Amino acid sequence: MRAKALRRAVLVWLAWASSFLAPRASAQTPEEYLSFFRAAAQRPEEYDSAAVLREFDRCEFAFVQAPQLGEILRLRSFYLGLLGRCREAWVTAAKAVVVFQIAKESVLPELESHCRSRVPAEESKGLSVLFGLRTAGTTLPSRARRFVLALLALRLGELETCVRREVEWYIAWFPQPLGADSVRAAFGDFLLASGHPAEALSEYISVLEFFDGSKLVPEVSWKAFQLARKLGNARFAQRAIELTERALRPLWLSDAEVSARLLALSRMYLELGEPGRPGLASFARLVDQYRDAAIPPDLLWAYAQRFGDAGDTTHALLCLRLLVDRYPSDPRSTEARTLMRRLGSRIREDLQRAFPPPPPRELRFRPVLAPSEIAAIKSAFLSRINADRRRLGLAALAMDSLATAVADSHCMESLRWGYSGDLDLRGLKPYHRYALTGGYHALSTSFLSGTWRSFRTTAQRLLEVLVRTHERMLEGPSESNPYRTHLLSPEHNRCGIGLAVGPHGYRLEIAFLNAYVSLDPLPTQLYSVREAERETLWVTGAVREGVQIVGASLGFEPWPRPVSPEEITSRESHPSPVFYTSLGKLESVVPEEGGAREALFWFWKPWSGFRFVFTEDGRRFRLPVVFHRGGPGIYTLTIWVRREKIPREFPATYLCFFVM
Known about the structure:
Elements: H1 2-21, H2 30-42, H3 49-62, H4 69-82, H5 86-98, H6 108-115, H7 121-128, H8 140-153, H9 160-173, H10 180-193, H11 197-210, H12 217-231, H13 234-246, H14 255-271, H15 276-289, H16 297-309, H17 313-326, H18 333-354, H19 371-391, E1 398-399, H20 401-417, H21 430-436, E2 442-451, H22 459-475, H23 482-487, E3 494-502, E4 505-514, E5 517-519, E6 526-527, H24 529-534, E7 536-543, E8 547-557, H25 565-570, E9 579-580, E10 599-604, E11 613-614, E12 620-626, E13 633-643, E14 650-651, E15 655-659
Parallel strand pairs: 1-3, 6-15, 9-10
Antiparallel strand pairs: 2-4, 3-4, 5-7, 7-12, 8-10, 8-13, 11-12, 13-14, 13-15
C-alpha cells in the first residue's frame, strides 16, 4: 500500500514538474500570442495542453478587438480537434466564422478531418447551424450576441462548461449595450434546462435588476416569480414583484411595454392568493389606461371578483364588460352577464335615488294623435330642416334615436305639468338627461311650445304650424335667436326630435348633436366622493376620420335641485359654465355649499402638462380625468375638436359624471 501511494505521489510530482518544463507563453501582444499558438499547434507533444488552453482563454478575453483574434480562434479550434474535444472545436470554429468573420474555407476542412467521425451526425448537423447565422453588415457586439443566443438555443447540456465560457466572455466585453439582457435571460433558460434552477433564478433576477427598461422584463419577471415559488424562495418571489414595479418607472416605455409589465405584475399578485391593494391598483391601472391590451379571460374574471369583494363596483363592472365583449364564447361569460346585471341594477337604483322622478301626475286627456302620426310629423319636419340646410350649403342631419327618446320624455313631462323650458322638474339640463341614458355627444337644444283653443288638431294642421314657426324663426335676426344659430351651425350632424301633443297645445324639443367622437363604454358614470377623490378615470375612444382633437375641459356644476313648473317657465336661461383657463386647482373655483356658481376647468391644452395619449393610427386616444377633490356635483367632460371646412373649434362630447 505504501509503495503504491508513493508511486502515485511520484507521478503527480512529475506531471506538475513537466508543466514547468514544457514551453510556456511569454507573449504580451496579439502577434506574440499568435506565434506561440502556431508553434503549439505544429508541435502539440512539446506543450502542456491545459496551459495552452489557458493562454487561449487569456488572449481571447484580453484582445477582443484585435484583428488577429479570428486567426487565433481558428488555431484554437484546430488544437481542440487534435485533443479530441470535437464539440468545443465546432463551437470555437463557428465563433471565428460568425463573430470575427473568418472564411469558412479556412476552418471547415481541418475541422471535418479531425472531428467528423467523432461527433454524431445529428449533433454535427445541429452545430452546423451556427455557421449559417446571417451577420453581414452588423457590428461586432451584434454578431457576438447572435452567436451566443444561437449557442444557448441549442441546449447543449454536455457542453455546459463551454457554453458558460462563451456567456462569460460576452458579458465581460458587452455588459450593457446591444442585448446583454437577452443573453442573460437565455442563459437562465439554459441553466434551468441543464438542471441548475437556483443559478437560473439568479440570472433572471439579475436581468430585472440591471435592465429595467428591457422588453424582456414581463416574461423574465414571471419566470423568476414562478421559479422562486417552486424553490420555496419567498424572498426572491417578493424581489421579482418589487423589481417589476420598479420597471414601470422609465418614461420612454411604450404603451405595449407598460401594459405587459402591469399584466405580469397582476398575475404575480394573484398567484400569491389575495392580491391586496397593490395588486388591485396594478390591475385597475391596466384596465383603465390600457384596455386594448390582450388581457386573458381568467385574469379578468379573477379580478372582477376581487374588485367586487373590495367594494370597487366600477372596476368590477369594467372587468366583466371586457370579459363579455372580448370572449363571448368563454364559459364564464354567462355568469359574468348575470353579475353585470346585478351590479348594474345597483347603480341604476343609486341614480334613481339621486334623481328621483317627479311625483306622478295623470293625464287628464286622451292622446290627440296616434304614435304613427307623431312619427310622420317628425320625419316631415326633419326633411324640411335638411332642405333648408342644404339650400344654405350645410350637410343634412341624421335622426338620433336616443336623443329622440330623451326629448320625447321631456316634452311629455312638460305637457303634463304645464311648463315650457329646457330644465325638467329635477333641475336637470338637456345634456344631463341625455347622459343619464348613456349619451355622450355634445348637444344643443331648442324648445318650442304652442297652445290652441280647439282640440280638433290633425297631424297636417300641426305640421303646418311647426313649419310656419320654423320659417319665421329662420328668417329672423341671428341675435338672441338660438334656434336659428343651432339650425345653421355647420358642426351639427345628427339630431333628436321630441314631440308631445295635447288637446290644448304641443311641446317640441330639437336636440342638435355633434357626433364626431366614439367613446368606449364606461362601467358607470356614478361615483361616490371618496372614489372621485381617490381615482383617476381614463376615458378611451376614437375620433372620426378628418377630425382633430384640440383640447378638453372638465366642467363642474353643483348637484341640481328640484324646481317648480312656474320657475322653469319664468327662467329665460339657466347658468352656463364659466371658462377658467388657468392651470390652478379646481378647488379655487368650486362654488360654496348652496351656491349657484359653476366652473369649467381646462385640464388639457397644447401648452399644459396633461396630454391625450394617441395610438399609432392617430385616431384612438385615451384621456385622464381627475376630479381634483371638487366634491359632490356633476362633472362634464368636453372634448374640443376641429374639422376641415368648419371655421371654429367646437365641442364633440358632453360626458357627465355624477359624484354623490
